[in-house]
Amino acid sequence: MIIIKIYMNYYYILFFLLIIFAFQTVISNIKTKEYTDFKILSSILAQSNINNGESQTVDYYARFNCGTIDNDNGPLRPGKYDSDITIFNRQTFPLTVIWKPIEINQENKNNFQTINIQPENIVNINCAKIFPSLSTINSTIKKGFIEGIALIRINVENGQLINNFLNNQGQSININSQQLNNLINVDVLHTVNTLDDLKKEVLFLKVDFLLNNNNGKTINQQINKDNLTAIFQVEPNLIIDPHILVKNIINNNYSSSNSQHLSNDTIKVLGSRLFSNTLTDNHALTFQKLAPTITNTTNVILR
User: Fold this and answer.
1) Same domain as 224, residue 95
2) Domain residues for 42?
3) Within this chain, do residues 157 and 242 fall inside the same structural domain, yes or no?
4) Mean pLDDT in residue range 197-205
5) Looking at the structure, do residues 34 and 65 belong to the same domain, yes or no?
């Protein structure tokens, strides 16, 4: 009887140990599953951060006028036009921008070009750089006129200046979104110079005269002067009769009843003098300060 009781005690102990082992196994499986789920979730979040990147483009749109206008058909007056776009790097590190000209008539398709700007330094883009053929003597563009927009761009992805990698600068530069407005300053100066053939001399003839008959007396009384003066623009290398010039201007300004009987005897020329003036418009300029246009995009990569 004693032996049976001892065996029963061992049986209870073994059963109790089995229950403890099963409970520990269940707890261990739960913790393993939680850890596995946490690793999966962390991996998903990390992959999401990699595949969803925020990028910005900082664009400046600078108008340019290049070439020559020799007629009055458009809104711009005749002259020789040039535009100078200056870009100032406000940072303490080198900065690379990309740019390309976009013509209004879209005759030429241009690719982006790179410009590396040293810290706190200035570069410029003018018509000679926009259209290098403008500097050639036989260029058809040199005799024409081209206008459009120069697109200047800085690319930023996840806070990194992507353009800087184009010039192999060998370092990754990170910026924050507050700096995007103040990376560079872009200013535009437009100039126009007078065409060479517009700088010409103009001749004028001043004629002092007197009208000495009844009709002439009436006209003198209307003007309230005894001696009259008229100024005429004249062409060089021509024979000019002051009497005819005066008669024509009187016929155009007074009634025919007073002027129809005027003759050369009626008009007494007291004297004449020829003088000249040079019509020039040497230079004009306008200044423009540009503000950036910032565009935010999110890149999603599907795998």
Assistant:
1) no
2) 2-52
3) no
4) 74
5) no
pTM: 0.56
pLDDT, tens digit (0-9, with 9 covering 90-100), for 155-174:
998 888 888 777 665 567 78
Residues 118 and 170 in one domain: yes
d(CA 261, CA 218): 13
Pairing of strands 79-89, 283-289: unpaired
Same domain flag for 213 and 238:
yes
Burial class of residue 148 (count of CB atoms within 10 Å of its CB; 0-12, 13-18, 19+): buried
Instruction: Please tell me whether residue 215 adopts helix, strand or coil conformation.
Output: helix
CA atoms of 187 and 7, how far apart (whole Å):
100
Answer yes or no: do 172 and 257 share one domain: no
Distance between CA 76 and CA 81 in Å, rounded? 10
- Other Cβ atoms less than 10 A from the Cβ of 38: the count is 10
Sign of CA dihedral 264, 266, 271, 272: negative
CA 124 → CA 120, 135, 195, 226, 303, distances in Å? Answer: 14, 17, 25, 65, 43
Considering the domain architecture, whether residues 254 and 268 belong to the same structural domain is answered as yes
In angstroms, the Cα distances linking 226 to 43, 173, 212, 223, 262 are 106, 86, 9, 8, 17
Report the distance separating Cα 253 and Cα 245, nearest Å.
13
**How many structural domains does the chain have?**
3
